[in-house]
Specification:
The chain has 196 residues and is an alpha+beta fold. The chain is built from 3 helices and 6 strands; from the N terminus they run αααββββββ. The protein is rod-shaped and about 155 Å long.
């Protein structure tokens, strides 16, 4: 019986010891969870603040994107409008230079009569000279295509081939219409006849 008593008391002591250990660990866990609970709102608030900051940054970036997109669209429209105006009015300065030549031709026709044939011829020569100098100002130069010039298919268009004792084969015999270059690029080929 003593043994039973002794073992019952040792069991009871062990149970008390376990209970006190459990209480201590509960207290410790409670303190830790209280610390975590106190720390959680701080961490949660910090995360909410970071989220708000990122949302504000995303909204600002979206606004910047929309503004840049609108600026790009406006730029495209402006460039298109300028391009259309350039195509529409790009020759304005050339036309302004040619108009005086037209005026001179009109004046020559107004004063035309059989007695004034020399004056008309002189007026037409002056007008032609004015037109040629205007075209030269804008980079338009005639293609060399006089008789005896070597035929070049890049600058000349052969309208006919003729037998010629005066010209060597594959050279120009006569020019029907002048050709022109615009800034060294072919604008219109010269129409010529070529020796066989």
């Amino acid at each position: 019986m003593d043994k039973k008593k002794h073992s019952a008391s040792s069991i009871s002591e062990a149970l008390k010891e376990k209970a006190s250990t459990a209480e201590e660990s509960e207290k410790q866990e409670g303190a830790e969870s209280a610390d975590l609970t106190e720390a959680e709102p701080d961490k949660l608030a910090e995360m909410e603040n970071a989220l708000k900051a990122k949302e504000a940054e995303a909204a600002a970036n979206w606004d910047k994107y929309l503004r840049e997109r609108a600026d790009l669209e406006n730029y495209r429209k402006r460039v298109q409008k300028e391009k259309e105006e350039l195509l529409k009015y790009g020759n304005e300065s050339l036309i302004l230079e040619i108009l005086p030549a037209i005026d001179n031709m009109e004046r020559a026709l107004e004063h035309a009569s059989e007695e004034s044939m020399a004056a008309i011829i002189e007026g037409i020569k002056l007008t032609l000279s004015m037109l040629q100098s205007t075209l030269k100002k804008f980079g338009v130069t005639p293609v060399q295509s006089g008789p005896g010039t070597a035929f070049d298919p890049a600058f000349h268009q052969a309208m006919s081939q003729v037998e010629s004792t005066e010209q060597e084969p594959n050279t120009i015999v006569a020019e029907f219409q002048k050709g022109y270059l615009l800034n060294e690029r072919l604008l219109r080929p010269a129409l010529v006849s070529v020796a066989k």
